[in-house]
């Protein structure tokens, strides 16, 4: 059942005449004796913490039974309300509860005979009661400063002493209001003094306070009348326990006694009547009505009926749904569950309480079993219902995406598919997004590229966004925006001046207006005429109606950060002398008129507003912000909006000179009664804290949502955030609109790149890849890692028969990955040819024992010690060379027609397929056969497995990963080679010609037998030896000589002999114009 349909969690109003207390739910914390205030009875900071932990916005706490006088004390450590020090102590408690939006009453208590002489002021006087009647068979003993003792027989109060008791109650009630309590509850239950007079088993008096039910009820009614003479009836409640037998206090005719008393309460119109069901320590008395005490009391009492004792979630829901009680007070569950209200809402399990720490613990600090019970989870991630009258929006968590100006909609302000993708990425089930500030009219526009809600095309564009968000289960509001003076004529229709409350320009700001022609300085606006202002209000109303038509769940009016509504509100800008200027009432008029106009078309659950008290954004300041915003927020209370959104003055919205010491949010919390949202500068810890202590109901995050599309998940798991790039906040200077908009990776995407390669402990392999490859690499690695892992796991159980299919799958995945890298790398080289350079200058690196001298001669087309320089006129047909390149040399292979490049690439893929198959097969063999220690260590060192923390059991998975990594390296070399052949734009200086063995292989000529037009031969020369050396290091692996290469070398050897014998020398001119290139 949805929480909004459960009456237990719905709002209610207590009884009373003048100012009834309004509650947001019906779960009450019952008064619980905890005995943590020592001899003085003064509440401490520990007591403050205890009550604050259990406070909820709009929830009612009833503070523990509190002594009305020194002689009223029944237990050592119980608090009092009869000294100035006690009043001051309670003030700290009530202030803290009210800061969290809670309400708190206090239970006024006189224990009567349930005491001990050691707890009396003189330490020896007897406790008092209606009569000198003791009792037996009790389950507890009084707590004194010297430990537990047996109860004693009390003395009977004299008739002339009883008015003094009444006066004590009256004085304590006055002290309670002075201490900040919202009201008092008279404790007339559970066997204490008022019930000792009421029940005939204890009251044996023969004066006006004994005998008949009217006499026995006299003290209770006299006390109520005395308290009501000082307090309003909305501030007074009473607790009764009909049919109970606590502390041996019973009545022979409870139905008659309590029927009389309850009927007497009806004319008093109290805040509530609190009934205790006789369960738990309050055993059932001899006479128990059918249906229970609550069912007995309901027909008798006309006001708010509260019931308590022994209720769980199901019975609490039942008793409120059937109308037997208006609200339910929970006792012990609140002791061990400081977040009991939340646990009841989400139907979560309860912590188990420890009876030994109910009162003062025998060992350990006073906080033991008091403030150390854990909460279920961070309140930031708990459910929340926004405000409103008809259908409040229900959220599954309290992390809200703040409105973020992104400027991706161009001149027309129409959201595109890219905008829909952006918001869909950030939507979560039951999460709230607030769409970016959206213009309400053409003249409202302050920035080029901002969206609007004033044309049919814009409404249709937003429909794509709202449908995408709703498809993911999310909720979305839109922020309605008029920038006022924060604009420029280039952004206005017809180039007119922007408008504001007054003709006051912006001074000393750090930004400029974004126009279609670039950045432009702000200018002095013109002041709106009085007759123009209703048109602005109508624009807000029309835009709100368009927003609902576009599918938004609600609208947020932008009354913050220095824009039009705030320009009217703040006297630093508003210099008007008409009805929209001067007093705070006048300056707030436009804002309130806009809100009321929107509310005339939308339900209050669909309307919210954003304010930035104490901010100074765009030079918009106020001389008395506390008065100004105090007035506005008090006006908002009556509107019952979905929420009030507050901007803390941090970051760009920096602190003004008049910010309250404890911050903007606590200031607003003390004033606003509805759902309060705060934003600006929060991280996980501060977001959790501010919702935990009740200062805010939800937190809006801005920039973190820009760079973290899965921000809610990251907050829940306390995962690191991506860094945002401020240069792409708005329209990026270079690159597509998606740059810095929809291309930030999620946590799952990053994890998929390293999970299979590093066992969560190694480095993130993606960071090893150059930045220009990271985006295409993401999907490549994701597909490769996931697919290969599945294949490898299957192979473990399927046996050798699956090896072939696994290798084929691996080859296909590798090819997909390398295809992607190949084209991206080629693009990188084409835009920046200087990325790849090689210059092997040191001649000694190429010398050996058989070094020979080569006669060097100058030629226009030959540079000493290097390959011939190729001019455009010397290139083969179809070849190209950049005009600015004066020295371009091509290595290793002949220049070919660009149309033949696919031949080279196809050859590379064939090589890759064979190499990948071989490497994977070898790895599989190694993984499933016994290796010697030396071989295994050699393999680990070669593959650098140890730093990546890859276990031996994952050798096969690692083999696939390494095959892809080796393929990546080969792809880089191959791409470089193909690029040089196709474009001839990169200068690569290779001194291979100076190698003596090269001369011998070529027979002393400038042509190579390997450059016979054989593409395979050229690739073989580039990669053959490297491949041979690398793969030969694998354990138990030795590659045989390449037969084709061996045959060619044997042929070359024969040519060398004939060349030496004929002593022929190469002809330089022939070499320069040869279609073959020297190797």
TrEMBL record:
SUPFAM superfamilies per record: FMN-linked oxidoreductases
InterPro entries given in the database record: Aldolase_TIM (IPR013785), OxRdtase_FMN_N (IPR001155), Oye-like (IPR045247)
Q: Which cofactor does it need?
A: FMN
Sorted alphabetically, which CDD domains does this protein's record hold?
OYE_like_FMN
Keyword terms of this UniProt record:
Membrane, Oxidoreductase, Transmembrane, Transmembrane helix
Classify the source by domain of life. Answer: Eukaryota
Residues of the region (Disordered) are 1039-1079
> NADH:flavin oxidoreductase/NADH oxidase N-terminal domain: from which residue to which, for each copy?
7-347, 392-719
Gene Ontology CC annotations of this record: cytosol
An MF annotation (GO) of this entry: FMN binding
Q: Which Pfam families match?
A: Oxidored_FMN (PF00724)
Q: Show the stretches that span the lipid bilayer.
A: 797-823, 901-924, 960-982
Biased composition, Basic and acidic residues: where in the chain? 1061-1073
Q: Which family does it belong to?
A: Belongs to the NADH:flavin oxidoreductase/NADH oxidase family.
Family annotation (PANTHER family): NADH OXIDOREDUCTASE-RELATED, NADPH DEHYDROGENASE 2-RELATED
Q: What is this protein called?
A: NADH:flavin oxidoreductase/NADH oxidase N-terminal domain-containing protein
Q: Which organism is it from?
A: Phytophthora kernoviae 00238/432
Ranked from the top, the taxonomy reads: Eukaryota, Sar, Stramenopiles, Oomycota, Peronosporomycetes
């Amino acid at each position: 059942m949805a929480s909004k349909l459960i009456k237990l969690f719905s709002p209610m109003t207590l009884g009373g005449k003048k100012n009834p207390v309004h509650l947001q739910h019906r779960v009450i914390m019952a008064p619980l004796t905890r005995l943590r205030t020592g001899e003085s009875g003064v509440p401490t900071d520990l007591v403050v913490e205890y009550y604050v932990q259990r406070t909820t916005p709009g929830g009612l706490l009833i503070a523990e039974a509190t002594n009305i006088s020194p002689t009223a004390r029944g237990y050592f450590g119980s608090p009092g309300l009869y000294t100035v020090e006690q009043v001051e102590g309670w003030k700290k408690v009530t202030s803290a509860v009210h800061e969290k939006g809670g309400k708190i009453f206090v239970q006024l208590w006189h224990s009567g005979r349930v005491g001990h002489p050691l707890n009396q002021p003189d330490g020896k006087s007897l406790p008092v009661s209606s009569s000198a009647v003791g009792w037996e068979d009790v389950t507890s003993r009084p707590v004194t400063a010297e430990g537990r003792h047996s109860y004693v027989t009390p003395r009977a109060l004299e008739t002339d002493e009883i008015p003094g008791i009444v006066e004590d109650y009256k004085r304590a009630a006055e002290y309670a209001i002075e201490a900040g309590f919202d009201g008092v509850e008279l404790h007339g239950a559970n066997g204490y003094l008022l019930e000792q007079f009421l029940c005939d088993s204890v009251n044996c008096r023969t004066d006006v306070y004994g005998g008949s039910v009217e006499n026995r009820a006299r003290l209770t009614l006299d006390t109520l009348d005395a308290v009501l003479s000082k307090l309003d009836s909305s501030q007074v409640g009473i607790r009764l326990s009909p049919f109970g037998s606590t502390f041996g206090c019973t009545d022979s005719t409870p139905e008659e006694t309590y029927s009389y008393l309850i009927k007497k309460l009806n004319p008093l119109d109290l805040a509530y009547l609190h009934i205790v069901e006789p369960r738990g320590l309050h055993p059932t008395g001899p006479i128990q009505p059918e249906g229970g005490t609550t069912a007995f009391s309901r027909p008798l009492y006309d006001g708010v009926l509260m019931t308590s004792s022994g209720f769980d979630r199901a019975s609490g829901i039942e008793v409120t749904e059937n109308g037997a009680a208006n609200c339910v007070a929970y006792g012990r569950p609140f002791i061990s569950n400081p977040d009991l209200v939340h646990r009841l809402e989400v139907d979560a399990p309860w912590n188990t309480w420890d009876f030994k720490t109910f009162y003062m613990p025998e060992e350990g600090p006073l906080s033991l079993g008091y403030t150390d019970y854990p909460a279920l989870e961070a309140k930031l991630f708990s459910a929340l219902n926004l405000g409103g009258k008809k259908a409040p929006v229900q959220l599954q968590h309290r992390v809200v995406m703040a409105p973020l100006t992104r400027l991706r909609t161009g001149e027309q302000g129409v959201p595109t598919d890219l905008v829909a993708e952006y918001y869909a990425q950030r939507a979560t089930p039951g999460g709230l997004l607030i769409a970016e500030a959206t213009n309400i009219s053409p003249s409202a526009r302050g920035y080029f590229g901002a969206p609007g809600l004033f044309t049919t095309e814009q409404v249709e564009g937003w429909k794509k966004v709202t449908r995408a968000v709703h498809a993911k289960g999310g909720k979305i509001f839109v922020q309605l925006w008029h920038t006022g003076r924060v604009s420029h004529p280039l952004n206005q229709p017809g180039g007119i001046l922007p408008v504001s409350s007054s003709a006051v320009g912006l001074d000393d700001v750090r930004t400029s207006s974004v126009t279609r022609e670039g950045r432009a300085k702000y200018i002095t606006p013109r002041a709106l005429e009085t007759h123009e202002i209703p048109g602005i209000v109508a624009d807000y109303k029309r835009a709100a109606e368009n927003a609902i038509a576009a599918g938004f769940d609600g609208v947020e009016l932008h009354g913050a950060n220095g824009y039009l509504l705030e320009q009217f509100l703040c006297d630093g800008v508003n210099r008007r002398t008409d009805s929209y200027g001067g007093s705070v009432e006048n300056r707030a008029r436009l804002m309130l008129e806009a809100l009321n106009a929107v509310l005339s078309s939308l339900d209050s659950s669909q309307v919210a507003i954003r304010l930035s008290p104490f901010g100074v954004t765009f030079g918009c300041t106020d001389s008395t912000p506390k008065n100004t915003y105090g007035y506005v927020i008090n006006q908002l209370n009556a509107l019952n909006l979905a929420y009030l959104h507050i901007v803390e003055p941090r970051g760009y919205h920096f602190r003004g000179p008049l910010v309250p010491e404890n911050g903007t949010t606590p200031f607003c919390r003390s004033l606003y009664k509805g759902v309060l949202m705060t934003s600006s500068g929060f991280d996980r810890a501060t977001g959790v804290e501010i919702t935990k202590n009740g200062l805010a109901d939800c937190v809006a995050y801005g920039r973190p949502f820009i760079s973290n599309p899965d921000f809610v998940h990251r907050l829940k798991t306390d995962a690191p955030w991506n860094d945002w790039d401020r240069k792409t906040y708005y329209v990026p200077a270079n690159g597509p609109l998606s740059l810095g908009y929809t291309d930030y990776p999620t946590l799952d995407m990053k994890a998929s790149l390293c999970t299979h390669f590093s066992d969560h402990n190694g480095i993130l392999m993606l960071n090893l890849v150059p930045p220009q490859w990271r985006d295409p690499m993401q999907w490549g690695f994701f597909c490769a890692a996931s697919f290969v892992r599945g294949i490898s796991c299957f192979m473990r159980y399927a046996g050798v028969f699956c090896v072939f299919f696994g290798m084929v799958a691996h080859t296909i995945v590798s090819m997909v990955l390398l295809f992607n890298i190949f084209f991206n790398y080629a693009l990188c080289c084409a835009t920046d040819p200087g990325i790849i350079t090689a210059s092997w200058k040191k001649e000694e690196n190429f010398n050996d024992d058989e070094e020979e001298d080569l006669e060097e001669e100058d030629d226009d087309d030959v540079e000493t010690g290097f390959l011939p320089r190729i001019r455009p006129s010397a290139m083969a047909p179809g070849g190209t060379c950049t005009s600015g390149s004066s020295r371009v040399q091509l290595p290793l292979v002949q220049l070919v027609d660009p149309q033949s490049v696919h031949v080279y690439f196809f050859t590379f893929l064939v090589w890759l397929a064979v190499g990948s198959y071989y490497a994977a097969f070898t790895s599989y063999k190694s993984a499933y056969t016994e290796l010697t220690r030396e071989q295994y260590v050699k393999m680990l060192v070669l593959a650098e497995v140890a730093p990546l923390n890859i276990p031996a059991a994952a050798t096969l998975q690692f083999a696939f990963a390494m095959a892809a990594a080796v393929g990546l390296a080969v792809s880089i070399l191959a791409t470089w080679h193909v690029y040089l052949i196709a474009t001839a734009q990169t200068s690569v200086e290779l001194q291979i010609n100076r190698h003596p063995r090269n001369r011998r292989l070529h027979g002393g000529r400038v042509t190579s037998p390997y450059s016979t037009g054989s593409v395979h031969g050229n690739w073989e020369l580039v990669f053959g030896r490297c491949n041979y050396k690398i793969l030969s290091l694998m354990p138990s692996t030795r590659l045989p000589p390449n037969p084709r290469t061996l045959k060619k070398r044997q042929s070359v050897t024969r040519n060398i002999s004939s060349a030496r014998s004929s002593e022929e020398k190469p002809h330089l001119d022939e070499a320069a114009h040869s279609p073959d290139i020297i190797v």
